[in-house]
TrEMBL record:
PROSITE patterns the UniProt entry points to: ACT
Coiled coil: none
Gene3D superfamilies: VC0802-like
Name by which UniProt lists this protein: ACT domain-containing protein
Length: 143
């Protein structure tokens, strides 16, 4: 199972992130997880939201450059060592992590690790075989 993620390309200008958050808030779109990567001139905001289609539409209507990509969302217990367990599965399977970010649903209970691997299809098969719980778009939207 893969989850759709929005990638918004930004110039590093004051207020650009606030413009995005305002646009999403005005349209009742809830951010489930986010990551920001930047360089001196530009950045990429990666978002998993409750309504991907609507978010992409309203952001594009407001002049943002938006792409959709797939990530794997792995539900994990919120306790020490969980990330290591997941990364050891990836390592043994020969997967390369391109990037990742995390979200804790409730401290001490569960969290979500979002991954982009060099081979997403192989990652799905590997994690399912290892008994990991992969979240679907529908599950993310209903959080």
């Amino acid at each position: 199972m893969k989850v759709k993620q929005l990638e918004i390309f930004l110039k590093n200008n004051p207020g650009r992130l606030a413009d995005i958050s305002h646009t999403l808030a005005e349209n009742a779109i809830n951010i489930r997880a986010l990551s920001v990567a930047d360089t001196a001139d530009s950045g990429i905001l990666r978002l998993v939201v409750n309504d991907t289609t609507k978010a992409q539409q309203v952001l594009q209507e407001n002049g943002f450059t938006v792409a959709l990509t797939d990530v794997l969302a792995v539900e994990v217990p919120d306790k020490p060592g969980t990330l290591d367990c997941i990364l050891q599965v990836a390592r043994k399977g020969g997967l390369n992590v391109e990037y990742m970010y995390a979200f804790s649903k409730k401290s001490g209970e569960s969290g979500m690790l979002l991954f982009r691997f060099d081979d997403q299809d192989a990652a799905v098969a590997l994690f399912q075989k290892a008994g990991c719980r992969l979240l679907s778009d529908d599950e993310i939207h209903s959080l």
